[in-house]
Structure formats: structure tokens, C-alpha cells
TrEMBL record:
Entry protein name: Hypoxanthine phosphoribosyltransferase
Job description of the protein: Purine salvage pathway enzyme that catalyzes the transfer of the ribosyl-5-phosphate group from 5-phospho-alpha-D-ribose 1-diphosphate (PRPP) to the N9 position of the 6-oxopurines hypoxanthine and guanine to form the corresponding ribonucleotides IMP (inosine 5'-monophosphate) and GMP (guanosine 5'-monophosphate), with the release of PPi.
Pathway per the UniProt entry: Purine metabolism; IMP biosynthesis via salvage pathway; IMP from hypoxanthine: step 1/1; Purine metabolism; GMP biosynthesis via salvage pathway; GMP from guanine: step 1/1
PANTHER family (alphabetical): HYPOXANTHINE PHOSPHORIBOSYLTRANSFERASE, HYPOXANTHINE-GUANINE PHOSPHORIBOSYLTRANSFERASE
Sequence intervals crossing the membrane: none
Primary location recorded for the protein, binned into one broad class: cytoplasm
InterPro entries: HGPRT, Hxn_phspho_trans, PRTase-like, PRTase_dom
Keyword match Metal-binding: yes
Cofactor: Mg(2+)
């Protein structure tokens, strides 16, 4: 699997340092607030696991699964709710945790969903922000690990056709992998 990678953009150590920095920041923001921290499946699993270990606060966690890429490199535009959260979000301070904001469509869908359900706040923590790909200009994350180039990335949760999520770093695939 590692042989399929052309370039490593963010090493394991660089990602862990970002988790530590974000975790400290979020500890200050949420101390005493008992937030509901929601992991956006599946891509955010490695980031969620590392981030929450760096947050020294009481919290609840939950999981939601929405999908728009269906395995390929282009957003299909239509967001599908595959699995909802288990908990009532009304009156809760929500922190959405995801691996990447790209076009912004997933984030727009999720913010609307939780605001409509009466959350008292909805903030967003993304490991990566790809600003050049944004189709919804107003969609910004509140806390971001890295601004990334406008390339299709894999690793640390990000997949191509369901694979590469388990790489401990983020990189770019060799072109021949896309060409089959
Ligand atoms: O800003 P956008 O263009 O909407 O893209 C961002 C979303 O795309 C990816 O999820 P995907 O829909 O591929 O599901 P996955 O996490 O299960 O891979 C990623 O994890 C984000 O949730
Ligand atoms: O760059 C990406 N790679 C994998 N999945 C994604 N979902 C949005 N952007 C990306």
C-alpha cells in the first residue's frame, strides 16, 4: 500500500502535533461545557481518535455517517445520510469533527441539520481545509489543522475507492493508481 504513494504531504509526527495543538485549544473552549463531539464517518475516525485524547474535558461522543464521494475523486453533490447520531442534540454544544472540508457541501448539510435540531452551538474542527476547492464560500471550519493544496489526498482517514484510510500520514497517490 505504501508503494502506491507518490508524495507524503503530512507525516505522522506533523499530524500528531496538529492534534495536540487543536486539542489544547478545544480544551480551553469547551471546559465546563460538556460538549457532544460528533465524528463524521468514515474519514474522521483516525482524527477523532487522536484529537479527543488531547482534550482534557468531560464530553459525550457520537457518530454520523454521510457520504457524497461514493469511492471516487469527485463529490457527487448529493449528500446521503447513511447513519444518524444516537443522541438528542437540542440544547447541546456540538463540535463536528471531520478530516477535510473540500467543496463545503458536507459541512453545509451537517451544520443545517444540527442547527435545525436546536443545538445551542455548532462548531467545526477539521484536520484539513482545501480552500481552493470550495463551492460554498461561507462554509468555514472554526478550527483547522492544515490548509492543503487542491489535490486529491489519501491517508489518515481519506480514501480512494475505500482504501488507504489506514495510512498514518496524508499523501498523494501515484497517477497510475487512478488510471488503473
Ligand atoms: O467538502 P466536501 O466536498 O463535502 O468533502 C468533504 C467530505 O468528503 C469526505 O467524506 P465522504 O463523503 O467521501 O465519506 P467518507 O468519510 O466515508 O469517505 C470527507 O470525509 C468529508 O466528510
Ligand atoms: O482529497 C480528498 N481525498 C479523499 N476524500 C476526499 N473527500 C473530500 N476531499 C477528499
Amino acid at each position: 500500500m505504501n508503494d502506491d504513494i507518490q508524495t507524503v504531504l503530512y507525516s505522522e509526527a506533523t499530524i500528531q502535533a496538529a492534534c495536540e495543538r487543536l486539542g489544547k485549544q478545544l480544551t480551553q473552549v469547551y471546559r465546563g461545557k460538556n460538549p457532544l463531539v460528533i465524528c463524521v464517518l468514515k474519514g474522521a475516525v483516525p482524527f477523532m481518535a487522536d484529537l479527543i485524547k488531547q482534550m482534557d474535558i468531560y464530553m459525550d461522543i457520537d457518530f454520523i455517517d454521510v457520504s457524497s464521494y461514493h469511492g471516487g475523486t469527485q463529490s457527487t453533490g448529493a449528500i446521503e445520510l447513511v447513519k444518524d447520531v444516537d443522541q438528542d442534540v437540542s440544547g447541546r454544544e456540538i463540535l463536528l469533527v471531520d478530516d477535510i472540508v473540500d467543496t463545503g457541501r458536507t459541512l453545509a448539510y451537517l451544520k443545517d441539520l444540527f442547527q435545525d435540531r436546536g443545538a445551542s452551538s455548532v462548531r467545526v474542527c477539521m484536520l484539513m481545509d482545501k480552500p481552493e476547492a470550495r463551492q460554498m464560500a461561507e462554509m468555514q471550519a472554526d478550527y483547522v489543522g492544515f490548509n492543503v493544496p487542491n489535490e486529491f489526498l489519501v491517508g489518515y482517514g481519506l480514501d480512494y475507492q475505500g482504501k488507504y484510510r489506514n495510512l498514518p500520514y496524508v499523501g498523494i497517490l501515484k497517477p497510475e493508481i487512478y488510471q488503473g
